[in-house]
Specification:
Elements (H helix, E strand, L loop, with lengths): L12 E5 L25 E9 L4 E8 L4 E8 L6 E2 L3 E3 L5 E5 L7 E7 L4 E7 L11 E5 L18 H7 L4 E5 L2 E3 L3 E2 L10 E5 L4 E4 L1 E4 L5 E2 L6 E5 L8 E2 L2 E2 L6 H6 L11 E5 L4 E5 L9 E4 L3 E6 L2 E6 L2 E3 L4 E6 L2 E6 L2 E3 L3 E6 L10 E4 L2 E3 L19 E6 L2 E6 L2 E5 L1 E6 L12 E6 L2 E13 L5 E4 L2 E11 L7 E4 L2 E3 L4 E5 L7 E4 L2 E4 L5 E5 L6 E4 L2 E4 L6 E3 L8 E3 L2 E4 L8 E3 L2 E3 L2 H8 L12 E3 L4 E4 L91 E6 L9 E8 L3 E2 L10 E6 L5 E9 L2 E7 L5 E7 L6 E2 L20 E4 L7 E6 L6 E5 L7 E5 L4 E6 L5 E9 L8 E14 L5 H4 L2 E7 L24 E7 L7 E5 L13 E8 L10 E6 L11 E7 L2
Parallel strand pairs: 10-11, 11-14, 12-15, 13-24, 14-25, 15-26, 24-27, 25-28, 26-29, 27-30, 28-31, 29-32, 30-33, 31-34, 32-35, 33-36, 34-37, 35-38, 36-38, 37-39, 38-40, 39-41, 40-42, 40-43, 41-44, 42-45, 43-46, 44-47, 45-48, 46-49, 47-50, 48-51, 49-52
Antiparallel strand pairs: 1-2, 2-3, 3-7, 4-5, 4-6, 4-8, 6-7, 8-9, 16-23, 17-18, 18-22, 19-20, 19-23, 21-22, 52-53, 54-55, 56-57, 57-61, 58-63, 59-62, 60-61, 62-64, 65-76, 66-67, 66-69, 68-69, 68-75, 69-74, 70-73, 70-75, 70-76, 71-72, 71-74
Length: about 1000
C-alpha cells in the first residue's frame, strides 16, 4: 500500500476514496494503464489528511493533475467555507499543501477543487495536550532496598525493573535520585493508553557517565601535554568539568594539534582501539579536573515500540543521545532536560508503514556546552558535528516549545543524500514555538523531501546560519513567522540545487555581524516563493547573494531587504552581477519589483523586540496570502513576523496571491529504493569505576519576589504603576504593551490594559496600566512562559511554563465616573449594497450579483440556489478612541415571494467584516463581488434576525464579541443569509428588503451604534 494511505490514528489521518465529483476516465472492461488516451481527463482519486494541533497536511492523488488546486475548509458549526492556501503539484505527481490557524480538538471539513474535479473529506485536530490517566502505578526510588515489588512502600531501585513489568496504562513514577542505566522497552502501550515513565519531582537524573577525579591520567613519555588512561571500550563523547572536550579525527591530529579540516586545536582527545587507551591533549594537569566518561550510549532506547511517554527527567553525559528511537510510533517526550550528549533526541524510521509515526517532542531543554569556542571548520563534517533534535521518522511529528542551545546544529528534519528523494521519510511535521540559540551552524535544517514541513513561530538567536534549506527535493516546505537574530554568517542558506517547493512568508531577520549575508544561494535554486519578509543587515554583507547561474521559477516580492551599506555599494549579487538598489535588481531579474530596501522600522531589534513601529513603512504593505494572513489588522497585512498591535502572529486571501501556479510542471521521477543509514548499536563499556556522585552545582532559577503598587489607592488616575521585583537580574521581559508576560484581572472595570513597561534595573521593572472605565479593583499578574531568564539562561521558576507564575500582587481600588453614552445612526451605502446568487446549488460559491436595485434579496431561487446580501456602512466618522458598547442592525422588508422565507429557512444570520469582504474594495472599486458570497468574515453569526417585525422592520442586536469588528477607520460590512441555504422545493422563496438605493432614505438599512469616548 502507498505509504501515504495508511491510517495510524483513525481520528486524525484519513485515506478518503470515492464520493468524488469528477468525470470518469473512458476505460473499457479489462483495460490496462497502457489503454489510457494520450491526454486523459484530469481526475482526483484519493485524499490523505494528516492533522496536528493547529495544522493539517493535505495530499490529493489522481491522474493528470493540474499544477495547482484551490483548498477550502469549514469548521464544524460554521456555514461559510474559508479559503486555504492553494495546493501545489509536487514531483511525484500528487497535490500537496497545508491548513494553518486551526483550533485544537476541533472537527473540520475540507474540499479541494481545480475547477473541473473536486474531492472532500473531514478530520479532527489533535488536542493541545495529550491526556493520560494511569490504570496502575509502579514506583521507583534509587535509594530503595533492592528487591522491591514496585509498590509505594517497596519501590523498585531501578527504572528498568519497573519498565520490564509495565504494560498499557502503566505509569512508572520515578523519585528524585541518580539512575545509572539505559532504559529499553520490552512492551508497547496501546492506543491512548501509554506506558508512561515520569519523574515524580524535579531531580530524577539519568546519569550516563562515570565522573573520574584524582590521579587517573598518566603522561605519555616524550610528549608534552599528552596523557592517557586505560579504557577497555571505545567512547563517543568526553567532557571535562561538565563541558564537552574536542575529539580529534585520529592520533596524527592529537599529536600535531590538528583538528578536523587541519584547524589548530590545542586540547582534545582520541581513543586508540588498538591499544585500548584514551589519549588526551591538555594544556594543564588533567588530574586537577573532573572528567565525565560515558558508560552508556543513551538514556532511553526505544526500538519498534508504540505509545511510550517519557517526561520530567534530566538526561546527561551519555555517549550518543538522550533518547534514541527507531521505528517507534506514538512517542511523547515532554519536559525533559537533556544535555552533554552528541544527539539530544534522535527519531529514525526504516521499517514498515505502521512504524515511526506520530511523535511529540515538546517543552524540553536540549543543550551541549563546550569547553572552547572551536572554529566552524574544525567541526563541520567531523565527529564533533552534533545536533539537538533530529526528526527522521515516518509520518506525523510535532516539535514545539523546546529550547535548543549550544549545539552545532539545532533542529534537523528529513534526511540527506539519495534517501532524501524518499517522500515517506519525515512526512508532515510541525516545528514551532521553539527557542534556538547559540548554534555553531544551522539552527533549523530541513533536508530531503520534507513534504509539508511547517517551520513557524520559532525564535532563533546567535546562530551561524538561521535556516538551511540544502536541499529541499519535494516540499512544500513552509517557513512562516520565524525570527532570526544575531546570525554571524547568513539568515537563510540554500544549497544542494534545491528544487522542491518552499513557501517563505512573514519572517524577520536582523544582525549586526560585520560580514553576514541576509540570504545565500550557494547553488542555483528553483520553485521558491518569498512574501512579506524582513531582512536587516547592519554590516558589510549582501542582502542576498546568488553565487552561480541557473536559478529559475522563483517568485520573490513584497519583501523588505535593508542593508546598511551606502547606496554606492552593491546590496545584491545575483548570479555574479552586482546591483546597488532594489530597483536595479527588479529591472534586471524581475525579482522584488514591489519589494523595498528602506529601513524596516523595528521597535528594538538589538534587544529582541522585532515588532513594528507605528510609522514603519512595513505597516499595511504586505501581500495577502490565502490561508496564511487573512485576519490581518489595518488595510493590509504587515511585512515581517509580527502584525502591528498583535504580538502573537495572527491567522492569515491575496491582494496579490502567490500560489503554486507559478511553479513549472515536472516529470514524475523514477526513484531507486532509498539507501537508509542503519541504526547503529555499540557495545556498552564494561568499565567499573566508582564514580563521584556529587552533582554539578546548579544555580537557583530566578523568581518573582513581589508585584507592588507605586501610586496611591484608591485612585481615579488614567494610569497607575506596579513595580515587579525579581530575585536577580533577568532579561527577556517583554517591554511591549501588547505583551505576553503580564496579565490584568479586574472587577467592575472595563477596558483596562497595559500601557507600557520600563526597566528600573535588571531585577526591577515598572509596569504602567491604563485603568479603563468604571469603579472596582485592578491587579497585575505575571504568567511564566519561559521567556524570562537569568544571566546564565535559566528560565523563571525553572524549565517549564507556569512554574514561575506570580499571582499574589497588591491590588488598586479604582474609582472613576462613568463616561456619557452617545448613540449614532448610519445608513447603508447604496452603491455597495446588493445581492449575490449562488453559482450552483450547495457549491458555496457566488455567481451573479446586483448592486443597483432598490431592494436586496435573502432566501433561495427556483433552482435551490441561495441568495445572500451585503450591506455596507461608512463608520469612519466614529471617534478613533470610541469604545462601542452596543450595535443594532435594522432592515425593512418590501415583500416576499411564494412563502415567508422565515417559516421555511429559519432566522437570518448576520456575518460581520471590518472592512471589505472581498479584495476589490481596498483598491477603491465597487466592493460588491461574487467572491463576497464565500469570503471569510471577521466573525460569522455575529447576530441573528428572527421573524418578529414591527411595521415591517426586522433587527438584531450584535453579539458583544462582534463589536471589535466595527471599523473606526473605514467601512463595516455585513453579510445576510438564512440559517438553511435552501428548502429543496424548487420554488423562489426569498424576501426583498429595501436597500440603500431605494428612493426614500427612511427605509434604508440602519446601523445603530452606542459608544462612549474617554
Amino acid at each position: 500500500m502507498n505509504a501515504l494511505l495508511r491510517m495510524t490514528h483513525p481520528a486524525i489521518r484519513l485515506a478518503l476514496l470515492a464520493a468524488l465529483l469528477f468525470l470518469p476516465l473512458p476505460r473499457s472492461a479489462g483495460a490496462t494503464g497502457s489503454d489510457l488516451p494520450a491526454n486523459p481527463q484530469a481526475s482526483f482519486t484519493s485524499m490523505t489528511i494528516t492533522s496536528n494541533i493547529e495544522t493539517a497536511g493535505i495530499i490529493v492523488s489522481g491522474f493528470n493533475l493540474s499544477k495547482a488546486a484551490q483548498l477550502f475548509y469549514l469548521r464544524d458549526g460554521e456555514t461559510i467555507w474559508r479559503n486555504g492556501h492553494s495546493l501545489a503539484r509536487i514531483d511525484d505527481g500528487r497535490l500537496a499543501g497545508s491548513l494553518f490557524n486551526l483550533a485544537p480538538s476541533t472537527s473540520y471539513q475540507v474540499r479541494v477543487s481545480d475547477g473541473a474535479a473536486e474531492i472532500s473529506g473531514s478530520f479532527i485536530t489533535q488536542s493541545a495536550d495529550p491526556s493520560f490517566t494511569p490504570q496502575s502505578i509502579l514506583y521507583v526510588n534509587a535509594n530503595a532496598i533492592p528487591g522491591g515489588d514496585g509498590s509505594a512502600g517497596a519501590p523498585y531501585s531501578t527504572i528498568q525493573e519497573a519498565v520490564n513489568q509495565a504494560g498499557p496504562g502503566t505509569q512508572v513514577l520515578v523519585a528524585d535520585g541518580i539512575y545509572k542505566e539505559t532504559i529499553s522497552f520490552p512492551a508497547s502501550g496501546s492506543p491512548n493508553n501509554w506506558i508512561q515513565v515520569k519523574a515524580a519531582g524535579a531531580g530524577a537524573i539519568l546519569e550516563g557517565s562515570d565522573t573520574l577525579t584524582g590521579n587517573v591520567w598518566a603522561r605519555v613519555e616524550g610528549k608534552n601535554n599528552l596523557w592517557f588512561m586505560r579504557l577497555d571500550d571505545a567512547i563517543r563523547y568526553l567532557a571535562r568539568d561538565g563541558l564537552r572536550f574536542y575529539q580529534y579525527d585520529d592520533m596524527r591530529g592529537l599529536n600535531n594539534m590538528a583538528g578536523h579540516g587541519n584547524v589548530t586545536i590545542r586540547e582534545g582527545w582520541f581513543y586508540d582501539q588498538s591499544v585500548k587507551r584514551l589519549y588526551i591533549r591538555s594544556q594543564d594537569d588533567p588530574n586537577a579536573h573532573a572528567w565525565q566518561i560515558p558508560r552508556f550510549n543513551q538514556a532511553f532506547n526505544i526500538t519498534a515500540r508504540d505509545w511510550i511517554w517519557i517526561e520530567g527527567f534530566e538526561m546527561r553525559f551519555s555517549g550518543r543521545c538522550g533518547v534514541c528511537a527507531l521505528n517507534a510510533s506514538h512517542l511523547t517526550l515532554r519536559r525533559n532536560r537533556i544535555h552533554n550528549v552528541h544527539l539530544g533526541i534522535f527519531i529514525q524510521w526504516d521499517g514498515d508503514e505502521t512504524q515511526g509515526n506520530d511523535t511529540r517532542i515538546e517543552f524540553n531543554e536540549v543543550y551541549d556546552p563546550s569547553a572552547a569556542n572551536w572554529d566552524w571548520n574544525a567541526l563541520k563534517g567531523g565527529a564533533m558535528e552534533s545536533t539537538g533534535i533530529i526528526v527522521r521518522g515516518h509520518i506525523g511529528a510535532i516539535v514545539r516549545g523546546n529550547e535548543v542551545h549550544h549545539y552545532f546544529n539545532g533542529i534537523y528534519t528529513g534526511i540527506s543524500g539519495a534517501a532524501g528523494e524518499n517522500p515517506a521519510i519525515a512526512f508532515d511535521a510541525d516545528i514551532y514555538d521553539n527557542r534556538i540559540h547559540h548554534i555553531s551552524d544551522d539552527a533549523l535544517e530541513p533536508e530531503g523531501a520534507c513534504i509539508n514541513h511547517r517551520f513557524r513561530n520559532n525564535a532563533i538567536d546567535a546562530a551561524f546560519s538561521g535556516i538551511s534549506l540544502a536541499p529541499i527535493t519535494y516540499g512544500p516546505t513552509w517557513v512562516i513567522r520565524n525570527t532570526v537574530a544575531n546570525f554571524t554568517n547568513k539568515a537563510v542558506k540554500w544549497s544542494g540545487n534545491s528544487d522542491g517547493i518552499v513557501y517563505f512568508y512573514h519572517n524577520t531577520s536582523w544582525t549586526n555581524a560585520p560580514d553576514a549575508n541576509g540570504m545565500d544561494l550557494i547553488t542555483p535554486i528553483k520553485n521558491t516563493i518569498l512574501r512579506n519578509n524582513i531582512f536587516q543587515i547592519n554590516g558589510n554583507g549582501f542582502s542576498f547573494i546568488a553565487r552561480a547561474a541557473g536559478a529559475s521559477a522563483n517568485d520573490w516580492n513584497f519583501d523588505n531587504w535593508f542593508n546598511s551599506r551606502t547606496s554606492s555599494n552593491p546590496h545584491f549579487k545575483w548570479e555574479k552581477v552586482n546591483y546597488s538598489r532594489i530597483n536595479d535588481l527588479c529591472k534586471a531579474t524581475g525579482l522584488e519589483c514591489r519589494g523595498s530596501d528602506s529601513a524596516p522600522g523595528l521597535v528594538d531589534p538589538a534587544n529582541g523586540n522585532f515588532t513594528l513601529l507605528v510609522n514603519s513603512l512595513n505597516v499595511d504593505r504586505g501581500a495577502l496570502i490565502s490561508g496564511i494572513n487573512d485576519s490581518f489588522s489595518g488595510a493590509a497585512p504587515d511585512v515581517g513576523a509580527f502584525e502591528l498591535q498583535t504580538f502573537s502572529p495572527p491567522t492569515q486571501t491575496p491582494i496579490e496571491s502567490p500560489t503554486a501556479t507559478q511553479i513549472p510542471a515536472t516529470d514524475t521521477p523514477t526513484m531507486p529504493p532509498p539507501t537508509l543509514t542503519p541504526f547503529p548499536s555499540v557495545t556498552e563499556p564494561s568499565i567499573e569505576i566508582t564514580p563521584s556522585l556529587t552533582p554539578f552545582p546548579l544555580d537557583t532559577p530566578p523568581a518573582v519576589l513581589s508585584i507592588a503598587r507605586l501610586d496611591a489607592s484608591p485612585s481615579n488616575a488614567v494610569i497607575v504603576r506596579f513595580r515587579v521585583t525579581f530575585s536577580e537580574d533577568v532579561s527577556g521581559v517583554n517591554l511591549s504593551a501588547s505583551n505576553t508576560d503580564f496579565v490584568l484581572t479586574s472587577t467592575g472595570i472595563s477596558g483596562a490594559s497595559i500601557a507600557g513597561i520600563d526597566i528600573e534595573s535588571g531585577a526591577s521593572y515598572i509596569v504602567q496600566v491604563n485603568t479603563g472605565e468604571g469603579n472596582g479593583t485592578l491587579q497585575l499578574h505575571l504568567l511564566d512562559n519561559d521567556n524570562i531568564r537569568d544571566l546564565i539562561g535559566q528560565p523563571l521558576g525553572g524549565m517549564g511554563a507556569g512554574n514561575g507564575n506570580f499571582l499574589g500582587g497588591e491590588i488598586y481600588e479604582i474609582s472613576k465616573p462613568a463616561p456619557a453614552t452617545v448613540i449614532t445612526l448610519f445608513k447603508s451605502v447604496g452603491a455597495n449594497d446588493g445581492w449575490i446568487l449562488e453559482a450552483q446549488k450547495n457549491t458555496g460559491f457566488g455567481g451573479t450579483y446586483n448592486a443597483s436595485e432598490s431592494t436586496f434579496l435573502v432566501g433561495d431561487d427556483n433552482r435551490d440556489r441561495q441568495y445572500v446580501s451585503i450591506l455596507q456602512f461608512q463608520t469612519a466618522s466614529l471617534p478613533n478612541n470610541a469604545t462601542i458598547t452596543k450595535a443594532i442592525l435594522m432592515i425593512r422588508s418590501q415583500s416576499y415571494t411564494n412563502v415567508n422565507s422565515f417559516t421555511v429557512l429559519g432566522n437570518i444570520i448576520v456575518d460581520i467584516q471590518k472592512g471589505y469582504f472581498g479584495s476589490l474594495g481596498v483598491f477603491g472599486l465597487n466592493s460588491l463581488n461574487r467572491a463576497d458570497f464565500q469570503a471569510p468574515a471577521g466573525m460569522n453569526a455575529a447576530g441573528a434576525i428572527p421573524n418578529n417585525p414591527i411595521a415591517d422592520w426586522y433587527w438584531t442586536t450584535l453579539d458583544a464579541a462582534a463589536l471589535q469588528y466595527i471599523n473606526l477607520n473605514g467601512v463595516t460590512e455585513f453579510r445576510l443569509r438564512f440559517q438553511r441555504p435552501t428548502n429543496d422545493n424548487r420554488h423562489n422563496d426569498f424576501i426583498r428588503f429595501y436597500s440603500g438605493n431605494y428612493s426614500s432614505s427612511v427605509s434604508h438599512p440602519i446601523l445603530q451604534i452606542e459608544y462612549h469616548a474617554p
